[in-house]
Each structure stands twice: as C-alpha cells, then as structure tokens.
Amino acid sequence: MSGIAQQGSQPAGDLVKIRGLSKWFPLTKGFLEQLHFEGGKLVRKRESVKAINGVDLDVKRGEALCVVGESGCGKSTVARVVMGLLEPTAGSIEYDGQRIDDLSAERLMPYRRRMQMIFQNPYASLNPRLTVKQALEEPMRFHNPGIGNGELKDKVQDVMDSVGVDPSWRERFPHEFSGGQRQRVSIARALMVDPEFIVADEPISALDVSIQAQVLNLMMDAMEQRNLTYMFITHDLSVVEHFGTRVAVMYLGSLCELAPTRTLFETPRHPYTKALISAIPKLNRDRPAHIKLIGEVPTPIDLPSGCFFHNRCVYANDRCRVEKPELHSVDGGCRVACHGVQEGRVD
Ligand code: SF4
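^ thats the input. predicted complex w/ iron/sulfur cluster below
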C-alpha cells in the first residue's frame, strides 16, 4: 500500500466544519431509579452516556482525514452525526458552507447524494433480497428518479468496472459473496451517485487481514480517480499510517490531537497519542519503547473533571485535574489539547 498524497487538482478549503459537537444518549431509567440524595435532599438525576463532548474538526477537500481512538471513544458517533443519522445534542455541522445539522429531511436531500457512507459490516449493510445490480441501481433511482434504463445500465456497468466488480456478480445475492466481495459491492453502491465526500466507519475491520489491503487500495484508487474526500474512522493506527493525510485522535468523546499523518507518527505530542503509537507492533522501526497506560478508561456516564485523560497520564498535575485543556496549535500544522505540552512539561 502506498500513502495518499493531497490531491492537487481540487479547490482548497474545508468541505466539512464541525463546531462544538456533542452527542449525549440519555439512559432510560425509571423515575425512582433517577432519585438520589444530595446534600440531604432528594434530587432527580437524569444520566446520559456522553459519547461526544465539544468536538471542533474540519475536513479539507481532497484529504483522507482519519479519526482514531479506542473502542467507545466516540469516533463512530461523530461519523453518524456528520451523516445526519443521529441528531447532535449541541454544536453545528457545515457542509460546503451550509449548515446542515438543522435542515429538514427535504432540504438535506441534495447533500445526502454528495455524502455517502460505507459501514463496518458488509453483511448487514446490503439488502439480502436485492441482487448486486438492484443494489447498485437503488441509490441512483432514489436520487435521480427520471433516469432512463439505458443510462442506468451504463452507469452500473461503469461503476462495476471501476471497482473491479465481476460482471458475473450482477444477478447474484449478497449471501453468495465473501466479506471482501460484499464490501467491494458496498463501495460500488456508495459511488453510484458520484459523491464527493465519503464517511467510512471501520470499513475493513470486519474483513480478513488478507483482503484488508485490497479494499484499502480500492478506496485509495477511487479517491484519486474521483477526487473524493474521506472521513475514515478506525481503531487501527497501522492502517492510518498508509491511508490518512491527517489524523484526529479521540479519547472519551474529545479530540486530543490533530496532525498531518507523518508528523503524528514521527513526533506524537499528546501523552495518549504517544502511548497509542508506541503500541503499534513494527519490526526494524525506530519506535519508542511501549508506553503502558495506567488505570482504566473512565465511564462516559460520569466524565472526570479537567483533562479526561488525567487518571492515566504520568504528566498529570493539579491544573490537569481541574481545567479541561483546549486544542492549541503547535509546530508542524498540529493541534494538541494538553496543558503539559503547552507548558513544555511533556517532551
Ligand atoms: Fe496529561 Fe495533563 Fe496533558 Fe491531560 S492535560 S494529557 S493530564 S499532561
């Protein structure tokens, strides 16, 4: 696999702007379970899973922005909110200069064609009752109801050719294919409507290791040929190293670090990023010794005060325990949310 270079032929600038994004999921508990004693008084306390907590993030045209973090860090929730599959609790999302998170379904429709999503599980994302041909035709008919049969047939053929879907698959059903083949069909389906932005949520993590590279290469080729912009969600940093132009690292629903891919791998700044990078198994590579994280990830129901990472960070001090760090710019086009980095305490 080769890395992706920034596309030169596209207008520069941000395609997606995420500001102050939060998504909390209320926990459904009975009235009596919500009652607690606090300061000698009975109070009703509604609890929520705080999946995303004030994320600011831009996706530039032509880039593959990878959003990484451990399971439960909120990265897939960000993907779903950006795609309009979940309503944000707070914050805003702009697409190509237009705020889209508060649009009606009807006004959102043109943006839905321009933004497509590829899901983790190719077994669940294809309708088992549709043949490959029908699955590819469906989004085109939906977004372009006036399309003629001849044009639709040509379009299906074009997309199948471009992503290497064998012509003999046309009349076959999803259950007849392997995971890698199904994900190829899912990618073809996403490309049918000529999107410009694709959100891919762990698109290779359910696939055999032997075919992960094939699917990544397919996505990279599609990016080059079609001037696509990606938001690529993954827990696997070794994938990011080959795929991403920039990387956003998330922890407990907040952004810790945002950096160009090479810079992030060569000089990670945030203590959490340092630990993640040090854990990538590599032969013959100059990596720092594996940094073992202490403690457990706190529950997103009851977030810690100050820096969400402070109970696991060897650099934590009193300020870290009370004041939440904001993202600030450092050299190399990076942004880091860490008091220790800002104060020069973290090397
Ligand atoms: Fe560690 Fe403090 Fe930086 Fe958080 S803000 S990562 S606790 S040094």
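The longest strand covers residues 14-26.
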